Amino acid sequence: MIELAEVVFRWPGQRKPCLAIERFHLAPAERVFLHGPSGSGKSTLLNLIGGVMRPAQGRIVVLGQDLAALRARRRDRFRADHIGFIFQQFNLLPWLSVLDNVLLACRFSSRRRERAGNARAAAERLLASLDMAPSLWRRPAAELSVGQQQRVAAARALIGRPEILIADEPTSALDAERQLAFIDLLLSEARATEAALLFVSHDLRLARHFDRIVEMQAINRMAGEADR
Amino acid sequence: MKALFALAFKSAWARRFLLTITLVAIALATSLLLAIERVRLDARTSFTQAVSGVDLVVGARGGALELMLNAVFHAGGSSHTIRWDSFEAWRRHPAVAWAVPVSLGDAYRGFPVVGTTPDYFRHLHHGDKKPLTFAAGRSFAGDLDSVFEAVVGHTVASQLGLRTGERITLSHGMTELSPLHADKPFTIVGILAPTGTPMDRAVFVSLEAISAIHLDWVAGAPTPGLSIPAELVRKFDLAPKTITAFYLGLHQRADVFRLQRAIHSYVQEPLLAVLPGVALDELWSLLTQVETTLLTLSALVVVVGLAGLSATMLASLESRRRELAILRSLGAGAPEILLLLATEGMIVTAAGILAGLVLLALALIPLAPLAHGYGIHLSWRPPAASEWMILGAIFLSGILSSLVPGLRALRMTLVDGLTPRS
Questions:
Q1: Which of A47, B78, B155, B230 is 20 to 30 A from residue A97's alpha carbon, by CA?
Q2: ipTM of this model?
Q3: Which among A91, A94, A109 has CB closest to B331?
């Protein structure tokens, strides 16, 4: 699903790489907990997998596609088609309605639009199964609580059934109780769409819900140098 | 593409208060530029239409422009007069089809009084060779039995609320404070239909009437102790001795230069014959520099407005880092980011231009009567070709100035990737 080999990344104008990963992989439908403190290169790794940044060396293969072989346009399209992202906070465009925020994923990817079938119905189904009351669907995203916003972000990442879900500290803005509820929802939805899940967190207490734990320091030889 | 437009619009709408200020700046700049261009265009049309059908304007020797301004546009001080004999001599020239004398210098409540003959209404045209017509009444008779008859232009009638049959008192000189010819009131017998030329602002009387109201006047003031009642003026010789200028229409336009040379070499009196079109061209070339300066200044105002657009959008980028990163994660690339910003610039500029057109239309309401005072016929109409070019240039410049924040946004998203440091 995701294969990294001998990947080195350095910021433009810097000689020393901030990321050097010999090997990393994610199997189909696998749920991996990626653990590491800030500064360990997590964000950079996600940018590389998403095709937003390019490595100086090495191979990144996602779904059998070597990202280095794709031009910027195609990498953007590839990301839109196959990867759903959830970030720590402020995932939504505050001036769009909840429903439009979810549908945004389909606006940039015709593949996900087709896989969603009736996009609007799919969005509504996802929101409902993520415990979002229908009365909230047409509200601007800015009016939601943080927990609600994260669930809307999850719905957007899931719509059109992308093969890969990447969640970057999605629960760190939530209190402990809501963290568990959110992870439960995310895992069950990921299972339903058979998506692989790469869950990034610094909070090891959450790790027990996942198939495998990967320590960022263990795979990045440059860990601790600089996160970005 | 449509989705991106909707996104750009909703994003801009969320920041509408800041963008509205920019929009207003663009609207004001647009309306200023358009107003100047419109006055320029309409002044030319109005001036050109005012001399439709006149082949030569003849007056005392002096500046051609001065003669035109005075004799056709009733503007500027009264120039020297010419003798009636000269008019009589040239009206009989075989090349001349018609000749109309004019005598200026009096006014009615600020509107110029034109002493002339009833031929004026037969031979003068306006616009695209349209004859003069009466909205009400008829021409003054021009005979001795009805000396105190007057015809008023459309603006005079509408602004002062005059109707046929009413009596008016002329004043000597063009200012409101000039002494009045109070003892000899005129009866309005006709009101001209609107022409869009200086004729709209004129009061027309016969040359004999001009003589009559000045019978007891010497050197521009009533003679003390001498007052000749209106009933008695017929007993005096009212035949005009001098006039300000006369208009000539020729049988053959081709004769115009030959006749002009002949008039210039008239030995009895130094005369000046002017081809209205040539004199107007002279006027335009004088005004070109002023016009260019005005247009350049207002173009700079537009540039300032668009720089404001650039600055506003640049300033908002910092708070939009999240928005751009979200769009990046959803698959937006460099073209989409650039297009998003350019679309925002386009929306604000287009709205600014529209608002500018509305402003212009609103500004024309009080401006048109004001300009009418100078013989310029301003009206609301769809933009002319040159105005469309101005609008197009503003629109394109608006999109171009949004590329500055656009490129900045691109750099930002490259550095930020999916997770901006905000």
A1: A47
A2: 0.91
A3: A109
